[in-house]
Amino acid sequence: MMKKIKCVLSYDGTNFSGFQIQPRKRTIHGEIERALKKIHKGHQVQIQASGRTDLGVHAKGQTIQFQTTYDLPMYNWKKALNTLLPDDIFIHHVEEVPLTFHVRYDAIEKEYRYYIWNEEGHDVFKRNYAYQFPYVLNIEAMQEACSYLEGKHDFTSFSSAKTTIKGSRIRTLSQVTCEKRGSEIEFIFKSNGFLYHMVRIIVGCLLDIGQGRRMPTDIPKLLEKKDRQLLGETVPPQGLYLWEVKYK
């Protein structure tokens, strides 16, 4: 009898070429399917994820699904997968879901977080887990800019020119926040969906505002223009984390 299994996992994206499987490259997708193939005695089992993450991007709460005819207790699935997976991937939770469930299309909200280490000196231990940005920032101006990003907008200006999305680029951001604690700056983004590189482009714009290169009130104008070329470079991937995916 066919069953559908949902897993919540975390991974350190440092030594992966992103989530999606690629020929002759190490990916999270590839490692999980390799483990499932061993469990299924050489039979290929395909997985689907709530979304893809790029090279160097991390996850605290990525979600995947796969189908199987094996009848194992959920604890045994978790134990078997974690035994076979490398140390930079860990399965936190496993549950059986209805066959009609879809890990991507049934998601109602995703949360991403981005971390900046705001110190003049370089910290070698944070190089893979935060964007080290040594310049003085006006946090209050950045927080004001965040408020303009919340709500329903067309985020074309904040989407990579390389995006393959052909449909609407309208998204609803239910939360955009920026908080500084000591030398660490944490950005939180919650939405019903994100465009390619959207979070990293937004963070780059907020850093420009923090340095006084733009005003917080520039955000509505940038949204209205729908032009990626008006914004600067995409910030590096290592500060980005897929934090949580919520379902009905």
Task: Give me the CATH superfamily of the largest domain.
Answer: Pseudouridine synthase I, catalytic domain, C-terminal subdomain
Task: Tell me the structural class.
Answer: alpha+beta
- The low-confidence parts are none
Please tell me the total number of domains. 2
The CATH architecture of the largest domain is 2-Layer Sandwich
Q: What is the N-to-C order of secondary-structure elements (H for helix, E for strand)?
A: EHEEHEEEHEEEHHE
Which terms would index this structure?
alpha+beta; Alpha-Beta Plaits; 248 residues; ten-stranded mixed beta sheet
How would you portray this structure in words?
- It is a single chain.
- This protein has 248 residues and is an alpha+beta fold.
- The chain folds into 2 domains: 3-97, Alpha-Beta Plaits (2-Layer Sandwich), CATH 3.30.70.580; 108-247, Alpha-Beta Plaits, CATH 3.30.70.
- The protein is built from 5 helices and 10 strands.
- The chain has helices spanning 28-39, 74-84, 139-149, 198-210, 218-225; strands at 3-11, 47-49, 58-68, 89-97, 107-117, 131-132, 151-154, 170-181, 184-191, 240-247.
- Strands 1, 2, 3, 4, 5, 6, 7, 8, 9 and 10 form a 10-stranded mixed sheet that branches.
- α3 packs across α4 (198-210).
- It starts with a strand and ends with a strand.
- The mean pLDDT is 96.
